[in-house]
Design a protein that fits this description.
The complex is a heterotrimer of chains A (103), B (676) and C (161). Chain B has 676 residues and is mainly alpha-helical. Helix content of chain B is 71%, strand content 3%. By secondary structure, chain C is mainly alpha-helical. In chain C, helix 1 (2-10) runs antiparallel to helix 2 and helix 2 runs antiparallel to helix 3 (38-62). The chains are: A mainly alpha (103), B mainly alpha (676), C mainly alpha (161).
Chain lengths: 103, 676, 161
């Protein structure tokens, strides 16, 4: 059991928790937060491979993480704004009721 | 076990823990929050006393405990704690006065619904303030400094349902932020110039000779020494926090907070943080005094700002009618005195005045709080009156505080510390203007305090609230008595005949002899005379013919209505700022809007017109030329689209689930397929 | 980290879950610190613990509704929860099996020496284009979010046609 294994186990745990949460909860905010958790798990992997991987390059993993965090921030901002817009429209934020896009 | 700088972190940590405990406690549990706050403060007080004892054994040294916080790149960012007499005296003062104010709050805030939060915020404030005191790094100091500002914001706006309180909190926060910006810039510049932010670090700190010599050696444009520029920027932070002249407008409004808060933050401790900061970086402020060529010395600016503030605050205090605002402007004025003392080169006198002022001003504020509590939150002195027979203890202690503040000779602490400042100003060889400002403020101080006492306590009750006032319980009067003892006794630690405090602070030998008392006797007699003039004038105008009704006009308003109206309006500083800064802001906003609407908007409109034009051309082409064959194709696309649309359930969960299952399948394929 | 994340996903009270998530993000930052990636840790704290958490809390508070609707557990949501748990458990099993079964080359003993200066240079030189694109994305996202969340301005009567 190397540190890398441990990190990967942690990150897959985090990923599964996020996924389960995103699938199970009906509140859109929690779904979004579950997705954020999954993104975090991916970031954990980047750092883990950068730090404990076979050939560490000086900054690659870190820069990956920085970009991912930036994208996650944008995603969270837009997502939460959408939630607020939807809430204003239909007075609740239950994801299964936001289905006007169905074919 | 001896108390060393290594244990210093305990002093701010204990109130911080109490604040955390208070935050987590259920809001009905009043006893836990208040009890933990008071116990933590008491333990901190004991520790601060131990620290003082240990610091006094070697007063000239600066014991430090530095550690690396984190390292980014080559040089680690280091923080640390510093134990010297300045820190130790301040810690003892803050914990002692803070403890008494906590106890007083038990009574004052008894009926408040947010009792728990109040103690939580108070503890947070105490922790941050003690953090400022023990920091050995400008960065740590700055962090705690901002926390102090935050706690002050929370406490001023504690009665947030009052719009005036919310506005005052905002004003205080933003005004001090202007000064803090200067402090931050000074901090960054200092780090850039020296590569360190530690005050003392075994020869490497920014307040030690190597760095100071380097700073003073560099000159900027205009012949300004680098140390002067940085010193002035740091002083900006002190101006904001200590309510000095251009930025003093927030302090009187801060009186919207509960009175114990005014006593703790806006009289005794936080506003003194600015004075403490300048005293802490005094070597930096002082170093350019040796350079003859520089156009301006940092300390000269400090002295003049202090003198202006001292005089201005005392003037405005004469025209205020709210008991707390009189005290607030008096605080502004006294802080001006401290800055003056710093500027004229006697930081020990400034700290001496800071300590005595903390005691008697906290006493006055708590006395005012006792009055306000008894009179059902009536704060207008015109509506009070006749409280002396009803509230004997409050009156006696308030009178002691008033005499200490006015500088009634010999017995009261304010006299000795004010003397120390005036002597220092007298000895300053640059200019005597600060001395004259200080002497004028002495008269005014004695005058407005006499007015305050005469209007509040003497005469007849002039409203129902004052009629039914009665003395408060022991939990509120005992802190008053203890503070009154301090307000009397503390002065004897620093008399000219036995300047123990000054000697311990600066780490020099103690020369005690009665001759020193005689040396400056001329100035001392003059200031005693001025105090007498002020008291007599106040008595003549207010004490002789006591006000009988609330509507009776103030004798000064009768003689000089315009002047008093201007003073009551605080010389129009708020309006001035609204008219200049506010209007400038508005103007730039309008300008930006104009540019946006006419220049950019015009461009966008033009492009839009262009688009419309090309669209028209396009449509003509399309309808005439290409329309025929597409209809058929689109019909078949629509058919298949409808079929696929069945899959679009509109359920985001469904999509996500499908993706997850597909991902699992993919992972299985990869794992089983042996892609290791 | 895992505990608080799981609890956050399970709790019924939205504010509690949001607070627990902040804890979880903070512990991710602690993990970065442990792994020697200080810069990423501070970015994580600033962006997640500082900014996103605030936005989340705002969204939670702005969309507070009567809690009655959530108390009744509909059969549909129960079914969805079971599916979700199954899917999650499957994935967890597969991933951990894969991780445990794989062998990696020996790790470097010391952390790569990464200074802020190095990161800055890398960002500006090798990844300059990506940095610009990220900036544009962030700006667009910000403007979009503002537009989406903004209430429609009331029109003045004289503006109406």
């Amino acid at each position: 059991m190397t540190p890398l294994h441990l990190c990967l186990l942690i990150s897959s745990g985090l990923f599964c928790i996020g996924l389960t949460g995103a699938l199970a909860r009906s509140n859109t905010i929690l779904v979004l937060l579950g997705i954020e958790l999954m993104l975090n798990a991916a970031n954990l992997n980047f750092i883990a491979f950068w730090r404990f991987g076979p050939a560490p390059s000086p900054a690659n993993g870190m820069i990956f993480v920085l970009f991912a965090i930036a994208v996650a921030a944008a995603e969270a901002a837009v997502g939460l704004a959408l939630i607020i817009a939807v809430y204003r429209h239909q007075k609740n934020i239950r994801l299964q009721e936001a289905n006007t896009l169905r074919g | 076990m001896t108390f060393t700088a290594n244990h210093l972190w305990l002093i701010p940590t204990l109130p911080l823990l109490a604040a955390g405990l208070g935050a987590l406690a259920p809001s009905k549990d009043r006893r836990l929050a208040a009890g933990s706050a008071i116990v933590a403060m008491a333990i901190s007080f004991v520790l601060a006393c131990l620290a003082l004892q240990s610091a006094l054994q070697a007063p000239a040294t600066h014991a430090v405990a530095n550690f690396a916080w984190f390292d980014l790149g080559a040089s680690p960012m280091r923080l640390g704690f510093l134990l010297d007499p300045l820190t130790a005296f301040m810690c003892v003062m803050v914990t002692f006065v803070g403890l008494l104010i906590f106890i007083f709050s038990l009574g004052y805030m008894q009926a408040d619904a947010n009792f728990k939060q109040f103690f939580c915020f108070l503890s947070l404030f105490a922790a941050a303030m003690l953090g400022v005191l023990v920091a050995n790094s400008l960065l740590l100091l700055f962090i705690c400094w901002e926390l102090v500002g935050l706690a002050s914001y929370l406490l001023i706006g504690f009665w947030f349902h009052k719009p005036s309180a919310a506005a005052a909190a905002k004003k205080a926060f933003i005004t001090t932020r202007i000064g803090d910006l200067g402090l931050l810039l000074g901090l960054l510049w200092l780090y850039d110039a020296t590569g360190s932010l530690l005050f003392y670090d075994g020869g490497q700190g920014v307040l030690e000779n190597t760095a100071l010599a380097a700073l003073a050696g560099q000159t900027l444009g205009g012949g300004l020494a680098l140390s002067t520029a940085i010193g002035l920027l740091i002083f900006c932070g002190a101006i904001g926090k200590s309510g000095q002249f251009p930025l003093h407008v927030w302090l009187p409004d801060a009186m919207e907070g509960p009175t114990p808060v005014s006593a703790l933050i806006h009289a005794a401790t936080m506003v003194a943080a600015g004075v403490f900061l300048v005293a802490r970086v005094y070597p930096l402020m002082q170093i350019d005094a040796a350079l003859a060529a520089v156009p301006v010395h940092a300390l000269t600016v400090v002295a003049f700002i202090g003198a202006i503030t001292a005089l201005l605050g005392a003037f405005i205090a004469c025209g205020q009618n709210d008991i707390k605002r009189v005290l607030a402007f008096s605080t502004v004025s006294q802080l001006g005195y401290m800055m003056l003392a710093l500027g004229v080169g006697s930081w020990t006198a400034a700290i001496f005045h800071l300590l005595t002022h903390a005691f008697f001003k906290a006493l006055l504020f708590l006395g005012a709080g006792s009055v306000i509590h008894a009179a059902h939150h009536e704060q207008d002195i015109r509506l009070l009156g006749g409280l002396r027979p009803k509230m004997k203890i409050t009156f006696a202690t308030f009178a002691i505080g008033m005499m200490a503040l006015s500088g009634v000779p010999f017995l009261f602490s304010g006299f000795w510390s004010k003397e120390a400042i005036l002597h220092a100003a007298h000895a300053w060889d640059v200019s005597h203007l600060p001395l004259y400002a200080g002497l004028a403020a002495v008269v005014l101080t004695a005058f407005y305090m006499t007015r305050l006492v005469a209007e509040t306590f003497l005469g007849q009750p002039r409203s129902a609230a004052a009629e039914h006032a009665h003395e408060n319980s022991a939990v509120m009067t005992i802190p008053l008595i203890l503070l009154a003892l301090g307000a009397i006794g503390l002065g004897f630690l620093g008399t000219p005949a036995w300047p123990w405090l000054q000697a311990r602070l600066s780490g020099t030998e103690l020369h005690s002899s009665l001759h020193h008392l005689m040396e400056g006797s001329g100035l001392m007699l003059l200031s005693i005379g001025l105090v007498g003039v002020g008291l007599g004038l106040g008595w003549w105008l207010y004490g002789r013919r006591l006000r009988t009704t609330a509507e009776a006009r103030d004798p000064l308003v009768v003689t000089a209505p315009q002047v008093m109206a201007a003073l009551a309006n605080r010389l129009g500083f708020d309006e001035l700022y609204a008219a200049t800064v506010g209007r400038l802001n508005h103007f730039t906003a309008t300008l930006a809007q104009g540019i946006d609407r006419w220049v950019l908007g015009g461009l966008v409109n033009f492009l839009a017109q262009l688009g419309v034009f090309s669209g028209t051309v396009n449509r003509q082409l399309d309808e005439d030329g290409l329309n025929g064959g597409f209809d058929q194709i689109s019909a078949s696309v629509r058919g298949s689209g409808q079929r696929y649309a069945q899959a679009q359930t509109g359920e985001a969960h469904g999509y996500l689930r499908v993706m997850a299952v597909a991902f699992i399948v993919l992972a299985l394929v990869l794992v089983l397929g042996g892609a290791r | 980290m895992l505990g608080s994340a799981a609890a956050a996903m399970l709790l019924r009270n939205l504010i509690h879950s949001a607070l627990l998530l902040i804890l979880s993000w903070a512990s991710v930052a602690a993990f970065y610190l442990w792994a020697g990636a200080e810069f990423a840790a501070f970015a994580q704290i600033l962006v997640y613990v500082g900014a996103i958490s605030m936005v989340v809390l705002f969204a939670v508070l702005l969309t507070r509704q009567n809690q009655v609707a959530d108390v009744v557990i509909e059969p549909a949501s129960r079914k969805r929860a079971t599916t979700a748990l199954t899917v999650g458990a499957c994935l967890a099993g597969i991933l951990s099996a894969a991780v445990v079964a794989s062998r990696f080359p020996a790790a470097a003993v010391t952390a790569p020496a990464t200074t802020v200066k190095l990161i800055g240079l890398e960002l500006m030189e090798r990844h300059g284009a990506a940095l610009l694109i990220i900036g544009v994305i962030l700006t667009v996202a910000l403007i979009g979010a503002t537009l989406l969340a903004a209430t429609e301005a009331k029109r003045n009567p004289e503006d109406a046609p």
